[in-house]
Amino acid sequence: MFRRTEPTDCTILWDGQELPARSGESLAAALLAAGVLAFRETAVSGAARGPLCLMGACFDCLVEADGKPNVQACMVPVTPGLVAAPQHGVRGLPETEDAA
Amino acid sequence: MERYDVAVIGGGMVGTAIGYGCAERGARVAVLDEGDVALRASRGNFGLVWGQSKGDGMPAYGAWTRLSIALWPALAERASALAGKDVQYRPVGGLTFCLDEAELEARRAFVHRRHNQGHNTVRIVDRRELEQLMLGCPLGPEVVGASYDPTDGHVDPLTLLRGLHAGLRRAGGTHLPGAPVVAIDAAGGAYRIARADGSAVEARRIVVAAGVATTHIAAMVGLDVPVRPVRGQNIVTERLAPILPMPASAIRQTGDGTIQIGVTSEDDGVLETPTTTAALAKMAARAIRVLPPLAAARMVRGWAALRPMTPDGFPAYAESATHPGCFVAVCHSGVTLAAVHAGPMAEAVLSGIMPELAAELHPARFAGNPEITRVQAH
C-alpha cells in the first residue's frame, strides 16, 4: 500500500515482531510502510482502526508504545528498538494514586 | 416569501426542541440559525439531566425541571430513534461530591433548602453509603460525602441535538442556517423576519431562543430579557474502562468511556470562548481529588462555551404583550429542559396558553416588579 522513498536504518518491535524502520519517522509511518493497517480495536465497538489524519488530531492511530497505553502512533518518533503493540480496546487506569 | 406558522430564532438545544415540538404537532416550522459560527451553549453542555441543584429560591423552576425529568424517558426514546443512535440517556442517579466537612455542611444546608422548596428526592449520603452506591469506584480519600438524587442522570448532548434536528426535519420543519436576524416587523397578520444576508421569512408566531443573543432579538418584539454570557470550560479525557458509575456535578464518564470534567463559571461578559491553562488545571486537580486514578489519564481536548444567564440564573419564558404570538425562551439548562421545551412549551407556542410553571418564570421579574405580570392568552 505504501512504498518507502528513503532507506530504513533500524528496527522496532511491533506486537513481538521485528519491523524495519527509520529513526525519526513517526511510528505510524513505520507501521504503514511495513504493511500494518490495523493499529487498534476501538473502545466502543471493537472495530479495527488505523491512522486517518497522521497529524495528531483524530486519535484513530492509538497504540501501546513503550508500555504506555492510548499513545498516538503518529506523534511518536521512531527510535531504534522501540517496543509497541496494538491498543486492544479501552485502557484501564492504574489502581494506585501515585501512578502517572 | 416563505410563510411559516412558527419561526424559531435559534437552532441550539432550546430552539430546536421547541421547533421540533411545534412541527410534531402539525405546525409549519422554520428554525433560523446562525450556523456553525454560532456561540452555541449546546456545544458546551455538560450533558446532565439534573434536578438536585435547580430552583433554590425559585420553586417554580424546581417543579418545571422535575416535570422535564419526568418527560425525559419518552424524549430519549424518540431522540435516539431520530438520531439513529442511542442518546445514552441514563437516569442512574447523580451526585455532587464534597471534599471536606465544610463542603459537606454547606451541601447539607442546601439540601435542606431544596426539601423546604418541594424537591424531596435529593439527600446527603456519607462516605460509607457512597461506597455502597458505587461499589469498586476508586474514590479519593478526601471524598467525605455527597448529595445524591436518584432521579438525576446524564445524556450525550450532541447526539440529543442531532436527534432534535432530525425530528424537526422528519416532521416537515425547515432548518435555515446562515445569517443572524436583524429586524422583525409586523406585516399583514404575520411577522417579517429580516436577516443579515438580505433574506427574510414570514411567520405567524415567533419564538426567540437565541441564547446569548436573546436580549437584542427579544427587544425587537417588545420583550425586555436581560441575558449575559457566562463562560464554561470543559475537559474531555481519552476513553477509559468504566471507573465512575454515576454522573456528578463537574465530573462524569460518558457512554463512550471518556471522562468529562467541568466546568468554570466565568462571568466577564466577553463574547469569546478561549480556554485557559489555569482553569483547566484547577478543574483537573479537583477531578483527581475525587478520582485519584485520573492522574494517569490523558486530556484529549479542552473547550469553552457561553451559557446564557439571566440576572437570577433561572430561565425566562414569556409571550410579548406588544407583539402577540411572539415568545421568548432562554435558559442555561437546555438539555435537562429539552423535554418540557419539546412538549409543554411547544404547546404553549401553538395555543398561546403558557403553562403555569413557565408563567412564573416571566422576565418581568427583572424589571423590579414585586408582582410578576403574567402574560394573558390571547
Task: Give an overview of the whole structure.
Chain A is mainly β and 100 residues long. Chain A has a single domain, classed as Ubiquitin-like (UB roll). Chain A has one helix spanning 27-33; strands at 10-14, 17-21, 40-41, 48-49, 62-65, 68-72, 83-88. In chain A, strands 1, 2, 3, 4, 5, 6 and 7 form a seven-stranded mixed beta sheet that branches. In chain A, a hairpin with a 2-residue loop joins strand 1 (10-14) and strand 2 (17-21). Residues 96-100 of chain A have low confidence and may be disordered. Chain B is α+β, with helices and mostly antiparallel strands and 378 residues long. Chain B folds into three domains: 3-80 and 157-227 and 312-367, FAD/NAD(P)-binding domain; 94-150, no CATH class; 229-309, 2-Layer Sandwich (D-Amino Acid Oxidase, Chain A, domain 2). In chain B, a hairpin with a 4-residue loop joins strand 10 (190-195) and strand 11 (200-208). In chain B, helix 1 runs parallel beside helix 5 (157-170). The radius of gyration of chain B is 21 Å and the shape is globular. The A-B interface holds A 43-44, 59, 70, 90-97, 99-100 and B 138, 140, 238-241, 243, 256-257, 292-298, 300.
SSE string of chain A: EEHEEEEE
> Which fold name corresponds to the CATH topology of chain A?
Ubiquitin-like (UB roll)
> Could you tell me the number of beta strands of chain B?
17
Number of helices, counting only DSSP H or I runs of 4 residues or more of chain A? 1
- Tell me which CATH architecture of the largest domain in chain B applies here: 3-Layer(bba) Sandwich
